[in-house]
Protein 1
Amino acid sequence: MAARYSIGIDLGTSNCALAYVDTTAASPSTQLLNVPQYEALGQWREDPVLPSFCYFLTDDEARELHPDGAVEGELAGWSHTRVVGQWAREMASLSPERVAYSAKSWLCHRGVDRESKLLPWQSTVLPVDRKLSPVDVSAAYLSYLRVVWDRQMAGKDKTARFDRQDIVITVPASFDADAQRLTLEAAERAGYPASTRLLEEPQAAFYAWLERHPGASELATAFPQLNERPELVLVCDIGGGTSDFSLFEVTASEGDEHPSIRRLAVSEHILLGGDNLDLALAKMVEPQLADGGTLSTSAWAQLLSQCRTLKEWVLADPAPDPAKLLRVSVTDGGSSLFASARSAEVSQGELLTLMLDGFFPECPVDARPAQERTGLRELGLPYAQDSAITRHLAGFLRGRRVDALLFNGGTVASSLLRERLCAQAAVWQDNAEPGMLANDEPHLAVARGAAFYRFSERQAAGLTITGGSGHAIYLEIQGAAPKKRRGKTKRKDAPVRSGVCILPQGAEIEAPVRLVEPEIQLMVDRPVRFQAWTSPSRPEDTVGEVVDLDDDAFHRLPALTTLALLPPNVEKPEGGKLAVHLIAELNNLGLLQLVCESVRRVGDRQRRWSLEFNLREKLNGDEPIEETPAEDTGAATEDLQAAQAQIGQCFGLQSNSEPQSEPARLIKQLEDVLRLKRKDWNTALLRELWEPLGESITRRDRSTEHELAWLMAAGFCLRPGYGHPLDRYRMQRLWFLHELGLAHDRDKAIREQLFILWRRTAGGLDRDQQAALYHTWRERIYDDAKQAYEPLRMAGALEWLPSEDRMELANHCLKLILERADKYCDHAIWALGRLLTRTPLYAGEGAILPVSAVTQAFDQLARLSWRDSLAGLKTTFTQAARRLDNRDHDLDEALRGRIVAKLTESGAKEDQLRRVTTFVPIEEKDRQQLFGESLPVGLHW
């Protein structure tokens, strides 16, 4: 049965909204769903806007709202312990550690595990099991809208149930494939049907305008030059968390009632919007409230909420008075609420200057976003490095003419900001001011447009927007020169990467694109990796075209990986390589699907293998990992082959005529064969040596010497478990060791070497694997005997463990140090440093323990002498107190001062003190210290 309703949902950073079209109505048009929601404890209101905030109730609040433990009508949120909407937004300033928000921004943050329980960010009042992942928070909003719909629109009419309708969820045009997948995952968790579609927000905003202006006369008024030439429309969508720009071409179609509309380009993902204005204003006011210092977390949240309100007041005023003063007040602890209240004033003129000069400054047409970090960074999110939206817009347009502007998003609801952007666009094109397409509902247009899009698509009538993929996709290749070069010329000494276009910009939905030339050779029976790149600004590139990949026009995606396994009875191709065609296709959800298809029959048929995005690839900071080329081992080919054969001989089946191997001397023998000392083995070489070790994982049981040698070599070759192509697959093979167990598990040396191996490779284990290690060896980890030395070090390296487990480990280390102050406790000191560090090796900011953990440890250890047997505490607290210039993780100045004084008294080195007192970028020696030994040469982070 055909769906009765077309539903559009704006899943926004700041607000959500739902619009719908009743296809059975006499005159179908978009309508808005009024969403009931709490505005205070026990008080309801209805509003078409659902603020994107999720409040975690206290036990008393939960009992008051739901005395019987049930959720009446399921309208209190995702569960009886949480509330979404208006009240949750109000509580963001009163109980910030109980409110999750900006989930949409977290969905596209590639530097964290977006399915881990991160939110509310840095909360110390909620246990980890009560927190939610960004996917789950997004699902909470979507689930709430579904329940409201079924309650208000369906009732007993099963045909009107939400899961039987055509549903479209909007996402930023710049969302990459990973963020799109996670959005669909959130929809699935919220009970949405499998047919749910995604639509880019700028397109939805344009569709909303088209619904309001359907007549030919209105189009002619909006586009006066349409009969003479195509006109370009820039949709400028600036919301709470992101800025999105999309360029559309409107062309008159001879003989057709409606013109054709094609999307030409979309901007890169820009994590920059109204939230950044709030942060900037709060930063400006904070020194007045904190006597030049910084506010507490609670007071900062209050200030941020008030600054959001001030910004909205000023932007809503069509004629703001620059001299008018605005007041903010916060409370910052103390026994008396009134005694601790602090106030400050800021003029509307100061606020306007901050917004216009800081975020919408005038700039030339050839301006580009600054690469150094000038933007604000709070809440753990990697906001745009340049806070000037106008420079981002200039970089997107690159001199292209714009005939009309359509503004969308709450930030540009202000006429002042719209006029500033229109005037800037006019300057860029010789004072030819573009027209402004009316949008009187910038906070609701996206939901309306999504519903109208789905309705128009079903009706197969009216105006539709074509354009397909907003990005071109490329694969990095070797040995092929570009057919033509565009843009600026590279320096002679700059590395040149070549890429082949596999999906052109503008590729249509469900239209497979086959890459025949250049031919791709796929390695079979072992994991392979392709480096993918994307560009939103190269509509002229065609399938198979080879181009230079530069960092200005192209951006690295997570790796594409596959494992091409052939059946055992199929003859392997010569050299282990198979010629394949690559087939790229956008499905009807707008997600990229890539398939390798054998050119010729293999066995009884042609074979196909899908390429998957490597979502496990760890990213350090905001940029993807740079890899060393796999063939750059630093060793001669014949030496490498001989070394691999040496490993195979050591663990393989040997005949009586072959010389017997000496496993204890394996590493020394490899040094001799490779003619390289082990300290000079780079990452690529180590991973090549791992291959025969991986194949020997079940053949290490020949003797205790063989198993000990295998564990030592495996840990050495795979450390630190990530940082090189296909390490994820290598770690999957290594994990068999945990499942198989040790062959000689009663041998103490072998058990210790097992713990060392897992410590060395911990960064390549996922969350579940680390938890399995922790719980399997928990008894040994917490044993006070000498046999617990290596288990405790291993546990300290498990950065993916829940914070409560890591806090328990930190307390155990603290206890050992206090009890053994005059004895050996280096293992506890080292593990404590890993647990308290402000700069985790691989798990990102989510692994940083709260400042209170550092305070507790320092208060108990400060009375001891940090010399002799406890000298390692200087390194521990250099890591624990390291200055990041990040409010979420930096110590307060009083505690920092105490630690600096203790470090100075203990004879700490100058560079240790410098890392605590000033911000110093992470260096290789910092990682070496955290890791506890040397890291492979050429490891890329």
Protein 2
Amino acid sequence: MSDLLKNDDIESINIEETLQNSYLDYSMSVIVGRALPDVRDGLKPVHRRILYAMDKLNLSHGAKYKKSARIVGDVIGQYHPHGDTAVYDALVRMAQDFSMRMELVDGQGNFGSIDGDNAAAMRYTEARMTKYAGELLKDLEKNTVDMIDNYDATTKEPEVMPTRVPNLLINGSSGIAVGMATNIPPHNPKEVLNALKALLANPSITVPEVMEHIPAPDFPTGGIIYGKKGIMDAYETGRGRIKVRAKTHIEQKGKKEIIVIDELPYQVNKSRLIENIANLVKDKLIEGVSEIRDESDREGIRVVIELKKDAMSEIVLNNMFKQTQMQTTFGIIMLSILNQEPRIFGIIDILKHFINHRKTIIIRRTIFDLEKAKARAHILEGLRKAIDIIDDVIRVIRASKTEDAAKENLVSEFDFSEIQAASIVAMRLGRLTGLEIEKIENELNELIKLIEYLESILKSEEVLQGIINEEFDEVLDTYGSSNRRTEIEDDYDDIDIEDLIPNEPMVVTITHRGYIKRVPLTSYEKQRRGGKGKTAVTTYEDDFIESFFTCNTHDTLLFVTDRGQLHWLKVYRIPEGSRTAKGKAVVNLINLMADEKIQSIIPTIDFSEEKSLVFFTEAGVVKRTNLSEFSNIRSNGVKAINLDEDDTLITAKIAGPEIQYLFIMTKMSQCIKFEIEKTRDQGRNTRGVRGIKFKHKGDKVVDANIIRDDEQEILVVSEKGIGKRTDAGEYRLTNRGGSGVIAMKMTPKTGKYVIGCLMVDETMDMMALTKAGKMIRVDMQTISKSSRNTSGVYIVKGDDVASISRCPKKPDEDEDELVIPPSAEELE
């Protein structure tokens, strides 16, 4: 082993440096050789090699189709030493009208669909180049680009295509390299060519001036782009984000509305989108949809979404935009290769590099044509000279023993060049006729003019630019009739679904079992003074209206759950129903977890910083958070309070500047009243502070309230149905976190526990639910008023009370139901 280590052939290397160098080599190979397009022709190596192989197979536009397998075989055999599947996938995409703005391959057979269907196997499909692809290869044979060795140096391939069209912008590109990615959107050919002409005319053109010609990307699948800021960012810096929406329209089917999807965002799979919408409808994350059908055909996309009678198309559509790929974000990264290096370009840089590429191509083409013209003119000059001395030329040729000797004799005797001598020796006698001699003269004169013109191109930048401009006009004549497919809408962020919905007064009813509905206030207004009144809701036998208030369609309901989660629901998202309808289960309108219960439903007209949301937990924790903290609405809600593992949220209340005190009631008849200012505002993601300290083991909070002033009355009810009204001033003011005072004198008559407490309101009754499932409505004004440390009177007899809550005032005997409820503003 020691002898081996002394061998001079062994070289010590640093493994870290070796790994770095090896990975860098690999990275650059992927970046330059596979994943990123060239800024000049917009092609990745695989696409360039496919087109070059098709050109070698004479598969130009108009030629007979050839099997795709033959094309793929030539590509991987001669130019692209990678898998045949990858090459065929690239060829298939080049033939898809929903992937390419201008297809490069004209495919015959099944080349896949927008539904995500795979193309047929390569042995079944056939292909040739499109007319547009021919523009990328035009003048390739005129030494316009460098030809480099293929992977095994057995043949040559073009380094770049001498394209006449700005393919990078027209067809875009996407690819993931090592440590970088590109995502260039497709554009309208006519717009890009007009922008190139504008840049030629004004080299100092600005991005806003370019956007007069290219206002935005133009996707092959259409759709609608919202907002121009992301486009401006991308065109200026090479990076930006644009929002793309499906194009839809609304149709009427009887009393129901139908949403029809006409166009999809770029690269969205139609069948997967329909499946996603169906699953969201099934999971009740999208409400109001009764049926989904795909009626698409060869004429175009038509996805029909039928709505239920009470569904508003604007709301359903907005939900689908938010939760599905009917709205996508296209992140633009205009990264491409220049001089074997990856760079991010703004749109003006891309246009300039294409013009520079065209200049190079035209100069090289001109040099090629000039050399060819000069070579032909040189031969014609020799022929003309030989015709003038044809007798002497014939004599010299006849005297020569061989053809090579004849050439040498012509060169030495008449001063012809070797090329001219070879042409003279090969000339047929028929060229000596008068007509043929005239043709030689005419051809020579034309060549002299051509040479002068070609030389002028090389001498004059102005002439060169004129040719580029003419070529752009030619391409425009061919491809300039393509109309824009993607529409553009301004100011996406300013568009709100609320702008489409009138802000009208509504009556919202919520039952004890959690059924909710809204009814226009006009359904009740005619009964405001006198009359029998109108039934507000038809409930189940074991249900009753628990909350009943007026608010506007743009107001918000806050739903607070026992797990401390807070959800929002705009009033206009509540299904509208008739006066007698039961409504819809609220659990179908917000995203609740399994076994999660709603503890409070709070209406609010705004999220003013002058208001607070106060939370009370079973373990005696209280927390106050500024209402403005909850203004940022999220579909899945937010964590409003951090609960201890064994704690549960009991209730939450909105407290305005007029609220003075917080009141907490425990199961074992403890209560505490303290100033609201004893709790400072805390952020959303906090636990809160101690509100009450329990005296008895096993005690817990059963209810809590906010108190405006000491003149308000508090109703306390025990488990045996004993209750009493007491002035808030009777409850001594203490410090937060103390044990408080006795709320009710507990006796065998009252039972061991307090069930809850309510703020007495002359517009509201108390509804008691017994353990046997009976419901008893009691006018709170009829309950005796007592001092704090007393028991009270029977409210419910014969059964233990399970829970109490407030409900709208019981109507008079000649009325059916409450007429006008309090407003959300009054409730706050």
Protein 3
Amino acid sequence: MTVHGTQLLADDWTVRSLPRGNPVPVHLPHDAMISEPRTANAASGAHGAFFPGGRYEYSKRLTVPTDASRVSLLFEGVQGIATVSVDGTVAGSNASPYREFEVDISHLARPGAEHNIVVQVDNSMLPSARWYTGSGIYRPVWMRATGPARFEVDGIDLRVRLTEDGCELQFVTTVETTVASDSPVDLSVRLELSDEGHLIGYASGPPGSMSLRVANPTAWTDTNPHLYSLTVTVLADGQESERVEHKIGLRTVEVDPRRGLLINGHPTLLRGACIHHDNGILGAATFREAEYRRARILKEQGYNAIRSAHNPLSRAFLDACDELGLYVLDELTDVWFTPKTPYDSASQFEETWPKDLKSMVAKDRLRPSVIMYSIGNEISESATRAGVSTAQEISSSLRELDPSRPTTLATNFVLSMLAGSPDHAEDHSPDTSKPAGPTSTTVNALSNRIGRATRLVTRLPKADSVSRDAFATVDVAGYNYGWVRYRADARRYPDRVVLGSESFPGEIAEIWPLVEQFPNVIGDFAWTGWEYLGEVGLGTWTYGDDRYRQARAWPQIVGGGGAIDLLGNPSGLMLLARAVWRIDSTPGIAVRPVDHSGQRVNRMLWRGSDAVPSWAWLGCTGRRADVEVYSAADDVELIINGRSLGRRPAGPRHRHAAHFQLDYEPGELVAIARVRGVEIGRSALRSAGKATVHVVPEIEVFDSDKQDLMFVRIELADANGTVEMADDDTVEVTVSGGSLIALGSAAPATTESYTDATHRTYQGRALAVVRPDPKGPGVVVGVISKGHGGSSAHVPLRRAER
């Protein structure tokens, strides 16, 4: 979204820790938690990756435009209880960390004058969620300076109807004004729709409803994410008061139990990834380029859908989904009335959910990427009478706010069965100061303990009885880890549309054939597509008797179940999914860590496999290597240094995986996939020669008008670029022409900080994140190591033309 008269307030802020910290310059968005020292007894515990949290004060000198009639501050998100002041006078507050909020400062700000803006944030009561939250002003802040009339925040709604010969667009605009009723002003709204710079539609009239017709439209889909430019202007007495610019896509969405999910009338299956809101080593800060990078890599790996877990996505991530073509299931919350952690939002849910819901819908409703809303995740009270009533109330409100998108509720059957027992069957307890009864955390621990026996539990008749009433309140039944019910429920509930809202990534080979078989099942979302901070050890495999082997133990830092690691590298789980989805005809080769061969393994259900796509394991010659080759082909042949190890069956009947064991030896490992004896593809992995430091920027030129950060891969690799997995080293990074924002690896356990200039690699890799100086000559990133030499890379800057 771009607003005429709106200014991004990113620079010239300071932050200090309260009560006695010194002010430090910062650039927004900013995560104050990621730089704090972690300790084993930190308040957030295993939920928040052992970060402490705290209280903070942000401040900025702000000059108000001389021609502004109305001035407000728009916050996209603040983690913690936020209080906003202007020159010492409180102007507004907010306690919902994922809700956007606007603070009108017109009565305190004088046009042309400079004012002191202070935002105090209290995020000291932890844990406040089951994951890493971050702290502070972690999403962008804007100043809105307009004339006397302006749109409500996201006060433009759109309904699309595609026809055989065109497209009908119905707009509704909501305008507010400060002009007194005894001095009426003539208000009008102007709509302009453009396609690649050419005006193709125009309408004007009073605020409210107006329509446009587009001939021969290009419909928006995940494979063709075509965007139009929409400019909407409100005029007061003929003078422009505010102008808003959006990128919109023309598409429709329906769900039908016989035809499934229909995008523009065409059946579509969701190859989905659940993701948390953090950006890995950057913490919770939602930098535009970081959000875009994550969306781009997820798309490149084969996902076509994203489920936000468990809160509304940022504007920047949704921008990327609109542009790249990713369907979005935006989720409201992880808790209702029953707390899951001691200081989560359960105690204020009844008061805040209507505002949170309205904010999410207003942000999403012009976006083609958003195709569905989730009213909650693993809500234990949805198995009770009070919970079903709440589900009905939220769903009804959603349909009033936005009838064009279906709703869902992500339900964990095991949790619902525990919560639906006599001890937890009544209305929610008024005491929400601490978790009471079963929570998602306890059910996750139970699932890891009993393993695949969860399938038997999920099949029980009680799983149906405790979920059916809540499912009746939404358009799509969200099954968390409930795919074993697909076949029976298709017969039992022929009018129910089902979505695999959460599943173990290692079970995709069993799940996806059912998604393709049953029309009422519209897709599957893996937990998780991308690795995340917090909820530590949920999926991390550990080895031997090392001190990290216990689940949720210090100093683990990530969840451990990501198909893509914290830095953006695909694991064997990602290769498996690509084979199941038939994206690749070439087989995917992954190898279980040879440096841990022969050690006792502590397996976790959310990981599925610890295999990674590498044959570079220094010092492991002669140790047993377990190789997994993923393919939809009939069989796969594996060859090591020209010697065939034979052919093994693959494809759907063998869960798309062929398994081989051999003694590790350096050289080349080749896999050949065949269908009915005919080769359809081959792939290879190679061991590494002598490894040195490689510095690999992910872009060739930094565009200061479009980008805010630059990502630089640091690899211990040979002359051919093959990364060595078993020869890690400590690296130190220097930056000229910019500043180092973050440095880290994908290590599941570490005591290092992501904000230091030194860090140890993990499996041969680290990642540096740099903010270039937009006025500088370019950026030079230098890296030196203890045992692998040093290197550097230069990235020139392309400045915006003014």
Protein 4
Amino acid sequence: MIRKSFNDGWSYRRKPDAFQALLGWANEGWEAVRLPHDAMVRRERDGSDREAGHRGYFPADGYEYRKTFFVPEEYQERRVALEFEGVYRHARVYINGDLAGQCASGYSNFYVRADHLLRYGADNEVRVEARGQDDSRWYPGGGIYRGTSVIVSELLHVALDGVRVTTPAIDDELAVVAVATEIQNESAVTRTVEVVTEIVDADNEIVARDVAPVTVFPGDTATLRQRLTVAEPRRWGVEHPYLYTCRTAVTAGDERLDEESTRFGIRSLSVDARRGLRINGEPVNLRGACIHHDNGVLGAATIDRAESRRVEILKQAGFNAIRSAHNPISKALLDACDQLGMLVMDELSDVWTRSKTAHDYAGDFTASWESDVRAMVAKDVNHPSVVFYSIGNEIPEVGTAPGAVLGRRLAEKVRELDDTRFVTNAVNGLLAAGPEVLSAIAAGGAESMEKNSADGGSAGDETSEVTGDVNELMTRFREFMPTLMTSEIVTTRTAESMAYLDVAGYNYLDSRYELDRTLFPNRVIVGTETYPSDIDRNWRLVQDSSHVIGDFAWTGWDYLGEPGIGRVEYQSDPAPATSGMPDHQGHYPWLAAWCGDIDITGHRRPASYYREIVFGLRAEPYIAVHRPERHGETVRLATWWSWSDSVSSWSWGGHEGKPVRVDVYSAADEIELLIDGCSVGRAPAGEKNRFTASFTTVYEPGELVAVAYTDGHETGRTALRSAAGDVRLDVTVDRARITADDRDLAFVAITLVDTAGNLHNTADRRVAVELTGPGVLAGFGSADPRSEENFFDTVRTTFDGRALAVIRPTAPGAITVTVTADDCPPNTTRIEALEGQAGEPR
């Protein structure tokens, strides 16, 4: 089987009028692009479009892509397929003008059979249409935003996604590796072939081998099962993500008909309410991050290096698991999780049959869910990082009998396809409990809830209408949530939908953890979505409760869309104009959610370091300084996804002699704060004080030091120094050598500093990037969640002293990146793009 990248040579445009296109009157407007490509992020945002608010005010539209490619004559005796890893949305694929395939989901991997429509020995055209509407609660992107491949095979070949590797028995002496290989015979004769299967270790040494014959009738598919033993196996785990490769060859005499290469890991999984989650017999608490699929300044474009960099940074921040909220994860991200040791909860969908936005996937789910489940499992099955399949997120109908029936069908279909992982569902009690609890919240809280329950509210009563987004309701009435969520209504409404799961996913239901240990002693719980400010309390519950196996924060990485759900607004800020947006979201020009531990450029925010301390992974204290220009102001709005409005810096020019609040995060007993060696005071920290010591002092330039003490002994210190003098540009590339293919990128961090490298966070200015050599600017921007600049200008404004440029290679050679700004000496860095191995199997 030949698998090659199909990402080059495309053009795209906005979808023209269909009638004009049919008559050949619409042939203009094409722009050359290299996939993966996000068409939506290049559009101008529109603050007047109320429907676009969820998407960060980007307009939804239809797009079409086309590519011309040559097909050799000899391919007439072969099979040709095209793979699309993700097209948003309602993809239709045409080959030489005829429909070849389609996929309703914007996130499912799908294949298109091409050989019956091809012209051999000639050029062919493939055209892809993609259409999005008001169909998402976040920024979805548009067009062919994930990678594509062309796959060519002999008439007798290994089926697509046709190799499955499991490890049913493992001990220190040996592991049994079970390999199931599907062989398809599309020729007109019966064939008997041999399948050679080799297990290869990380040093490319063959550690197990088996050869077996298999006979396949014409038009039939045969599954060959082989069991191989690997002596003294190296196990895959979070700390030691060791990978093997299964090499499969199909031969007939001396002829090699097909071959496949499949990476996998040897590891065991178990979970129960007494011992929690165990991997290879060792207990693991999930330090989880919910993530969306976009890549910040790249939009939704899913280029491999962006995915691997994200996993690297999340792991450095202390996370050991990610949840792909709320759609199937990309292949590139799975590869990175396998290689780096990150556990995965892969999620199917945000909706089943009830819509959350006007034109969302609920209209397609009934017809498409089975193919979507098959695609997700086929993509995931050989990845050791995948531990959970989540069948949904905050599905309203899980609290109804029909919803429970549908959920059980979904869970059983997953188990039919892969019974080696655990099935969960991210359940929100507010939605699952239905009109009773929503009416109670709208009416004023817990007292109304209790009265409604006492009056015997019917579970099937749909007459009570509550307006507003669920996140908005949760924001406005969170003080009532713990009582409401432990009510009998929630217990009853969620019982059946929790019962068919291996692990019950709780969204904002941490108040039920202790209650449900008694009510459901065999239930295993994972916090699939929690508020960032609750991590200290929730992590204590995880540590103390064997039946609670982890916590997934909303969110680990900031994202586009759901604008401003983590914002902080002050009384002096201009009141937003009424625009029809839910109160929990920001009005234009808000762009990003601003609720991530890590911002859209990959820079860690203060919440990230706080979480790392709570996890017990960081001994040094961390200093977060509240913006002094806001000192003493009344906060008008801080949502439950907000963090403090703080920056880790002691450079606040123009605020000398003015009061400022300093928070120090630490697990130590006590923190002493010093300015230029003079003590500001001491304050308790540690878990009893929510890991935070707070001080109010006066800003004076110099050195700010936090010293941690436990039992009277110093256990760590951190210092911040004020930037002084001229502003300079610090330009740092993540890797000086990259591969010149369609999968690699270079990330160039731009920081405003002084001569000593101290951050000039209040000296923001416009910076320009200029490239020479074989590379293009794939994205350029800052983490500013309210920026009105776009990600493709060569000039952008820094935010808190930082910006990020992403360079994509176009050919081998030296790429020079020159960064300039007013009143700053220019700074140049060099990137070597080396000849790559594009097109090789993953």
